[in-house]
Amino acid sequence: MGKTITEKVLSKHSETDCHAGDIVVASVDFCMAQDGTSKLMIEELAALGFATPKPLRGAAIVLDHSSPSPSAEVSRIHSVIKDFSAKHAIELHDVGEGVCHQVVPESGRVLPGDLVVGADSHTCTYGALNACSTGMGSADVAAAVHTGKLWFRVPEALKVDISGGFKDRVSAKDLILRLVGDVRADGATYKSLEFSGETLPSINMDGRMTISNMVVEMGAKFGPFPFDAVTSSWYASIGLNPAAGVTADDDASYVRTIDVDASDLVPKVARPDRVDNVCDVSECAGTEIDQVFLGTCTNGRLSDLAAAADILKGRRVKKGLRLIVAPASRSVLMRSIEAGIVSQLLAAGAVFVSPGCGPCVGTHAGVPSDGERVLSTANRNFSGRMGNNNDVEIYLASPETAAASALEGRITDPREV
Amino acid sequence: MADVILRGRAHRFEPNDDINTDYIISGRYKFKIDDMNELAKHVMEDIAPDFASKVESGDIIVAGRNFGCGSSREQAPRALKAAGVSAVLAKSYARIFYRNSFNIGLPVIVCDTDWIVDGEAMLVDLEKGYVMSETSGRQATFSHLPKTMRVLLNDGGLIPHLRKHGGFSFD
To answer: What is the ipTM of this complex?
Structure first.
């Protein structure tokens, strides 16, 4: 019987011939954690008598969720993390380097066909790199860092077959929001979402990361793309030339196939306060907003900033509206400066914050005021997510919709500006 | 050996489905509060502000589908446990929360929960695999926990398991 990408990766790492439903103990290639989850992981590692990381390519901690530190309490946590990392050969990505799920791929520590776990739910992002990668709690990641292994239930796979070309100002975010809306928040629980189809060559690595990033919003464990020319040219751009990764067998078994025609897609919005509360932008167009946030591990990459700048250049955001931009990494920020994108966004009225998670999770800059409405390019819109009690409404959309909405001060179809 | 009989009052919430980890413990406390007993004072506060003051040791959370979706924060099951919660009953769970709960020694059970009324006195028998309302006498069964989960609970969680066996030992 043929195998899915997921079954191949877990078979190789467990040195077994495993299939969906089996429970295996598998070697892990790389582990990561961030400043919000590391303190617990460090305590758990200390309890295990940890020395140095056992995974093949080690472990990293990224200071991104509350970075640079807004308070003495956070600074103390950052100090503990930095001291521990230095003592135990854990790679540290300091404040300002960027969001973990951009910094880790840029570091070249995740390769095609890898098995990766991270103490952050959006670790599934590295599916874009052809890895089986997933978020876990601090104890699981501590166990993997300490032993180099972890137990996994081999997930059943859903195949997402993407055909057709994207229309102008419709992008990867609209595709994944449409999927989340159809599959719902628990529709892929414990599953692996494997992407395929004729459209993949036209979805660049930034777009693939946007898509894999949000598979967890359907409950999925992994979200791998196949290894192809887009993967190898992206690795070439960071100076690596990895061996071909993993592709699914033609006769691999999937629970079901979801067909998506990209040419049918329109800009999508997830309304408060569920990620699967998805509608066409036309259904909520006109809703007045106070803040637009462009950034995050979902949509803070160069392509995202470029798409927003393309709409905002030579224009000004609506008076009274805050447009906050957090580039996904220092490298993204530098490349955006070189491309003239930063000047265009600043001239349009944008406020730049440090590369990192920015206001996404409410532990840093850009916390909205009571009763405000926010349109964000992030992946979650739960009540209180951005640091307030539940009277702030968060809408999720693409960088294109975010830029158009910032111009008008209300939710706006990017094809109409 | 973990307790196999758990007793406590049922707590239900609105919403009943998709109770996410931000609702269980808001991200805004992640950096502010280090002590689980302090964190426990804020558990569920965005959807049930009076829960933390009402919950008593042994109490049981009852929910619908996809309990614990969202963030990977292990503070979610840890704060519930620190607040005194002895078990969660739900129709389904998000996978990270499910693993985290067993990893920190909090049993979470998949069973039908529609029949359970807020405030009822509940009994959960982990070994025999049933849940009963001692108020109404109604009950429901659940499938035996997977062996991996039983081993983790018996050892008091994942870290104690690794300390005890020096590695993974589920056989």
So the answer is: 0.89
Condensed to tens digits (0 to 9), the pLDDT of residues A344-365 reads 999 999 999 999 998 998 888 8
Task: Write the CATH number for B79.
Answer: 3.20.19.10
Strand order in the sheet with A278-280: A278-280, A268-270, A393-396, A373-376, A291-295, A322-326, A350-352
Superfamily for A270-416?
Answer: Aconitase, domain 3 (3.30.499.10)
Q: Do B69 and A185 touch (CB under 8 A)?
A: yes
What does the pLDDT look like over A56-82, one tens digit per residue? 999 999 999 999 999 999 999 999 999
What are the tokens at B96?
A: 């990270």
A381: left (phi over 0), alpha (psi -120 to 50) or beta: alpha
Q: Name the residue facing A384 among B31, B46, B92 (closest C-beta).
A: B46
- Domain assignment of residue B165, yes or no: no
> What distance in Å separates residue B159's CA from the closest CA in chain A?
7
Q: Which amino acid is at A227?
A: F
Kindly report the backbone phi and psi dihedral angles of residue A84, in degrees, each rounded to the nearest multiple of 5, phi listed first: -65, -45
Cβ contact (<8 Å) for B75 and A40?
Answer: yes
pLDDT at B151 (0 to 100): 93
- Among the partner-chain residues A39, A48, A139, the one whose CB lies closest to the CB of B104 is A139
Residues sharing a CB contact under 8 Å with residue A254, sequence separation 6 or more, in sequence order? A4, A156, A157, A158, A159, A194
Using CA atoms, how far apart are residues A60 and A54, in angstroms rounded to an integer?
12
Question: For residue A126, which of A111, A136, A140, A142 has the smallest C-alpha distance?
Answer: A111
Q: Distance between CA B144 and CA A385 in Å, rounded?
A: 35
Distance from CA of A367 to the nearest CA of B (A): 11
Which positions 30-59 of B are in contact with A (Cβ < 8 Å)? 30-32, 34, 46-47
Residues of chain A with CATH 3.30.499.10: 5-261, 270-416
Domain count, chain B: 1
